[in-house]
Amino acid sequence: MDYHPWKNRKRDHIKIWGSCNGIILLTTFRAEYIYLWNPYTGECKKIRQVDKNSLPVTHNSMYSIGYNAIAADYQIIHISTSDYSHAKVEVYSLKNPSWRRIQDIPYSISSTMEKFVNGALHWLATRLQTRQIVIIAYVLETEKFIEVPLPDSIDVNPVDLFVFENGTLDAYLCTIIHYKNAAKQQQTKVWIMKDGVTESWMELFHLDGNLLPICCIREGAEIVLHNYQQYFIYDTNDKSLRGGKEISSHMKTTYIESIVTLPI
């Protein structure tokens, strides 16, 4: 990992947007480019960002990355929200290297990072007209957005999403809620969607305090969590919570080493 795209930009601010198949998507504050970086191989591809002159002066922008297995192609998604009626969506694919505006959506993205599950990017979002919190998914194969139903039994808004992986090829979308129990104590509950329908939501685990899962390790036997100050490990077998390592950075993403190469 000796090479990185900001090696000569020590005073620039780095924003990590996410990763997919060992490729990290990031931007720097001053640069006009997006970087796709494989830390394992050192390979880096530079892509010009969307034309900022086409965006309103006041807007919120975010980037995400996913992989279309049918087309064997990576896609970068740019979503910008500038008013209370819609968000603008643009797509850049490595096989079709130019930005395309595909549609407008009536949502504002709430998640800090997307969750890539079963060929779709998932976010928590707010319906701009009703201010209702929902899960939306962008299906890379069809380039369409859909809503994913939340568990019927939860009566508080979720705070984030999480992907549970158990060491097989399967990955499951999870939603995280924070609430107070009858004794007014802070609690965290994680729900998992097993079959992609509302009825398949079930509770995966719950813990004391406000915690956010980050990733699974040891084939799903353990889950890494944080509370913005410290990291913890939750053992799904004996239900124990251990750790407490201090967090040195608030910019986090999951990453798995790979030898994936990027087209020139």
UniProtKB/TrEMBL annotation:
<protein>
    <submittedName>
        <fullName>F-box/kelch-repeat protein</fullName>
    </submittedName>
</protein>
<dbReference type="InterPro" id="IPR006527">
    <property type="entry name" value="F-box-assoc_dom_typ1"/>
</dbReference>
<feature type="domain" description="F-box associated beta-propeller type 1">
    <location>
        <begin position="11"/>
        <end position="237"/>
    </location>
</feature>
<dbReference type="InterPro" id="IPR050796">
    <property type="entry name" value="SCF_F-box_component"/>
</dbReference>
<dbReference type="InterPro" id="IPR011043">
    <property type="entry name" value="Gal_Oxase/kelch_b-propeller"/>
</dbReference>
<dbReference type="Pfam" id="PF07734">
    <property type="entry name" value="FBA_1"/>
</dbReference>
<dbReference type="InterPro" id="IPR017451">
    <property type="entry name" value="F-box-assoc_interact_dom"/>
</dbReference>
